[in-house]
Amino acid sequence: MTHPMDPESPIAPKVEIDTLCNELAALALISEHEPPVVTRVVFNQADLRAREYVKNLCEEAWLTITEDAIGNTFARWHGSEPDLAPIATGSHIDAIPNAGSYDGTVGVLGGLEAIRSLQRAGFHPRRSIELIIFTAEEPTRFGIGCLGSRMMGHVLSPDAARALRDKQDQSLDHLRKEAGFTGLLESIELPVGRFHQFVELHIEQGPLLEQEGIDVGLVTHIAAPASMRVLIEGEGGHAGGKLMPGRKDALVAAAELILAIEAAAKSTGDVSTVATVGVCDVFPGAVNSIPSRVKLETDIRDIDGPRRDSVITAIKVACAEIALKRGVVIHTEMVNADPPTTCDPVILDAMEASAIEAGRTYRRMVARAYHDSSFMACIAPVAMLFIPCRGGVSHRPDEFASPEWIAGGLEVLARTLARLAS
Ligand code: GLV
Ligand code: MN
Ligand code: MN
Fold this sequence. Notes:
This protein is of the alpha+beta class. The chain has 12 helices and 17 strands. Strands 2, 3, 4, 6, 7, 8, 15, 16 and 17 form a 9-stranded mixed sheet that branches. A 4-stranded antiparallel sheet has the order 11-13-9-14, covered by helices on one side. Strands 1-5 form a two-stranded antiparallel sheet. A hairpin with a 5-residue loop joins strand 2 (64-67) and strand 3 (73-77). The longest helix has 22 residues, at 305-326. The N and C termini lie close together (11 Å).
């Protein structure tokens, strides 16, 4: 048996990069929008078809598939000691509106190709290796990111999940059952020890690896994400008849608040603090009607949790000041405020040894996007492996990772999985 920990006989995974790139391209065509735009909102037809596509590939690789009550999917390559907790890898295949082809999918199809490359090399894992396809890493439909892993890691309770509704007021519970995931929500959470270790391959979604010409990033920390809903209630009226003095225009208050949010993020003086208002719904949304109600959704992140929280406090203070000044009512609701994640030194060392063995350059780095790894960290040691993406671009149709970059990540991921599963 080939044994990757034996320096005399390091495993040499046989990565078929063309096959993987063809699969990534085929998956990208399963979209709610015309190519090159990828949109796959959880439980919509494209998401369900994409799941079928990936599950078929997993079955062709002789993996055993199970699904939980929210559609988290587990595809297992059985190890020789089935009682040992498995090594897991994976990511997500849902995609925000107007996304590209690589966010999440590189970790799913790449994870599968890493497994197949080890199978081709004749490797036999001692621990099982499990590929996970997480449900709804993106917050598009229910407003909260990493839904599947959040529930697995007990960070979102079944009752809180039951309360989630989309913009059409359809409940998560109804939609997941309609999609065929009918078990008890209580059965999703997994115990510590269910997985021995978890490693996620992902595009960097930032520019550093490409700029520095480095093959892979070994992620030591994942930034702390938070998201806040803001509802501004002003007073509507006729855009011609109601004169400017005394107006309580909810959208003008929102404009002032958006600038205050930007200022709050900049005020820390550290580039790691970021805040974005990505959703602004205006009611009634007629050109000749003063906006009476505005809903904002704000995303606030930092690698430093307390500093991120100080920005949230500053935003709440700004809400109170603007409400007073403009005579509007402002309600805030925290959707989530997650802590930063520290990656596991044992997995980091395994990735480093694998990068050296594969002849790939590497550096340690911080993940600024959020990932399912953050919630897997509640139940298992985790780490992430980044590959470059062109211009650092992500969440856009022109997101791109070259076959060579992906192959570099796979060489390291496959060796890492082999090490951890031996
Ligand atoms: C995940 O896509 C994120 O927004 O970081
Ligand atoms: Mn994303
Ligand atoms: Mn992602």
